[in-house]
Automatic annotation (TrEMBL):
Organism domain of life: Bacteria
Native source species: Mycobacterium stomatepiae
Protein name as annotated: Uncharacterized protein
Length: 47
């Protein structure tokens, strides 16, 4: 079972994807901005 509806939407039709995890900073209020910054710092560019 997928962890989120978004992952289920990718998995069901077989869309290739990669789950990338990062540590959440509880002081951060914008999860999207936090994710972009964390992934960018890890060398992963949005595409």
């Amino acid at each position: 079972m997928a962890a989120t509806p978004a992952l289920a939407a990718l998995t069901k039709p077989g869309v290739p994807h990669e789950v990338v995890k990062f540590d959440h900073d509880p002081r951060e209020h914008s999860f999207g901005v936090e994710a972009v910054n964390a992934l960018g710092a890890a060398g992963i560019a949005p595409g």
